[in-house]
Amino acid sequence: YFLPRHQLVLALYGSTSALGSFSDRDFDAALDTMLHSSSHSYNPPAWVYHSMRSIGAAIFGGAQALATHTAQATAMALPGYYLTALVPFLLALSLCEQARTLPVAERAAVLDTIDQSHLPWLQSRAADAPANFAHLLRWIEAERAWAGDDVWAAGAAFDAAVRDAATRQRPWHCALITERAGLFRLAQGMQATGRPLIEQACN
Questions:
Q1: Does residue 35 carry a pLDDT above 90?
Q2: Of 42, 104, 142, 174, which one has the greatest count of Cβ atoms within 10 A?
Q3: How far apart are CA 35 and CA 75, in angstroms?
Q4: How far is Cα 197 from Cα 203, in angstroms, rounded to an integer?
């Protein structure tokens, strides 16, 4: 349960074998046992591992790793944990990223999945627990609008997400939302507003 969390911290400190990696000699030796500690879908250590890898991939910008590990964590989700609520959000983030990088003609199915499944789920969570989920909902609304080339809506939603995240006790949420807002603006050629957001995220 705790080893994957420890590896995420080491990765954030740059103390693993490569940027964003969980790999080191001790962890690699334990990983196979962790992933195969149960022959059934109920495998808490593997679920925690894939959940932590999902968080790491979101922070380090690893789109393929985010897609892989959110899918794995979703398939073996355990009820009653905060991570169980966080993983569907990370899956929605992954789908937005996938949609944004697809040719325009191929985006519709992914965007429809986001609209029909993931946004309604997040809207319900935000209504129940706004302090935990309202800023995440705004973030996914921004990413979804960006993926759909709705620049005005994306900019407004990113602004709302940054504003809301600044009032929450979730520092990594705030930093990552701010960075994504900055990257969105830089992608639109908005250097004067994008770069300060990147600097703010780093601080």
A1: no
A2: 142
A3: 14
A4: 10
What's the pLDDT score for residue 39?
A: 58
* Helix pair angle (82-101, 119-128), 10° resolution: 140
Q: Which two tokens stand for residue 169?
A: 């006790």
At CB < 8 A and 24+ separation, what contacts does 20-23 make? 20/56, 20/57, 20/59, 20/60, 20/61, 20/62, 20/65, 22/52, 22/53, 22/56
Please count the residues of the chain: 203
pLDDT digits 0-9 by tens, 52-74: 999 999 999 999 999 999 999 99
CA angle 138, 63, 88 (to 5 degrees): 45
* CA 157 to each of CA 69, 118, 120, 131, 146: distance values in angstroms, whole numbers, following the listed order: 26, 16, 16, 17, 10
Percent of the chain as helix, strand, coil, to the nearest 5: 75, 0, 25
Report the predicted TM-score, pTM, of the whole model to 2 decimal places: 0.90
pLDDT tens, position by position, 124-161: 999 999 999 999 999 999 999 999 999 999 999 999 99
Contact 182, 203 (CB under 8 A): no
Q: Distance (Å, rounded) from C-alpha 69 to C-alpha 93?
A: 12
Average pLDDT, the chain: 92
Q: How far is CA 145 from CA 99, 109, 189, 203, in A?
A: 11, 15, 17, 27
